[in-house]
Structure formats: structure tokens, C-alpha cells
Amino acid sequence: MNIAIKENLLxxxxxxxxxxxxxxxxxxxxxxxxxxxxxxxxxxxGENKIxxxxxxxxxxxxxxxxxxxxxxxxxxxxxxxxxxxxIHGVDSLKLLQEIDKQAKKNDRxxxxxxxxxxxxxxxxxxxxxxxxxxxxxxxxxxxLNNVEIKGVMGMATFTDNMDQVRKEFRLLKAxxxxxxxxxxxLQVVSMGMSGxxxxxxEEGSNMVRIGSSIFGxxxxxx
Length: 222
Ligand SMILES: *Cc1c(COP(=O)(O)O)cnc(C)c1O
Known about the structure:
By secondary structure, the protein is an alpha/beta fold. The two termini are 20 Å apart. It has 8 helices and 8 strands, in the order H-E-H-E-H-E-E-H-E-H-E-H-E-H-E-H. The site of pyridoxal-5'-phosphate has 14 residues, from strand 8 and helix 8.
């Protein structure tokens, strides 16, 4: 039994404001480790690889809500369309259209977040503000009946400069607020990870994605 996972999780949950949803990021972690978190009431888990998530989804308790937090390849959407609870990383119209198509096949409406590029690194995925604005204005989203846009997601620059991180989170919240004028159903601002979630919450996050502070460092060599 891994007591640390339970203790870490309970301590983090205790400190989170009530309106903030905790996504326990379980990528690379075993089913036994996920069950440790499950036994203390955690039901929302985040994964970044569809294949890994689907394997876990098949064997773990069916009341777990699985969030896809990683970059999504269009040809893999079909593998999670029957069960995924929220897709955080929607970064193109083409991807959204594919999610809509696969959701329809499964007779579902799949909740999605627009991933927005807020970091300075060029490697991170996401819409920029202008692209997003243009897409929303075009009215093309009205044609997609099997996706529900619930909000935005972003990742700050990987840096020790917390002023920079704060500035980026503030930008994402401002984009969310602006988008809200056109899409009043939006609710979710998904920002903040182990290293920066307290700042994200100060800047208006209501969904944090926390992995290593719950489960410990990830080991990618296995
Ligand atoms: C891995 C990951 C996290 C969690 O990162 P930690 O630093 O372990 O908390 C959050 N969001 C995304 C998109 C991730 O890929």
C-alpha cells in the first residue's frame, strides 16, 4: 500500500477552494496506484496517451471520469469516444470536427476545452487568440452538435520565473472572459500543475491538473 499517495491527495484536496476541480494526473502510473487515490474518493483522472487511458479505463472502476489532457491525434479519437469525460487539448477545428463525428457514432455529446497557447515556448500546442476568435465568429461551431465546448485549457512556460507564469495564466483567464461573451455556456478554466497551481488558482483557475505532487515523480524509463 502506498500511504503517501493518499496523504498527498488528501492534503492537496484539503487546501483547494471548493470551486476548483482536481484532475489527478495518473499518466505512467499503475492501476494499483490509481486505486489508492480512488479509495480516498478521487474520481477524476487525467491521462495524456489515449492507448494507456483506454487500457486503464477497461479494468478500473467504471465510475472514474477520464480526462484526456495530452495532445490528441485525430486518428485516435475513436478509441476514447465512447467514454472520455473531457478532452482538454482541442487545438484545431479539424480535431473538433473529428471528435464531433466520433461522438455522434457513439450517440454522445463529448465535453471539450479549447487549448490555448499561452507559453513562450513554441513547442506547446494550442490556438492563439486570433485563430480562436476567428473560428468562434465564423459560426462553424454551431454545426457541431455532438461536442460541448466547456472552457479553456493552457500550460504556462516551464520556468522558475513565477511572474512570467502568473502573467500567462492571467492572459488565459482574460481570453476565457472574452470568449464567455460569445459562448455563455463556458465554465471551465483548466490551468495549473504541481509546480504552479496555487498561482493558477489565484489567477482564476477552477480546474487543476496535478500529477507528481500526488503520485510522486514519473519514471519514463519503464
Ligand atoms: C503531466 C501533465 C500535468 C501534470 O504535471 P505535474 O507537474 O506532474 O503535476 C498537467 N497537465 C498536463 C497537460 C500534463 O501533460
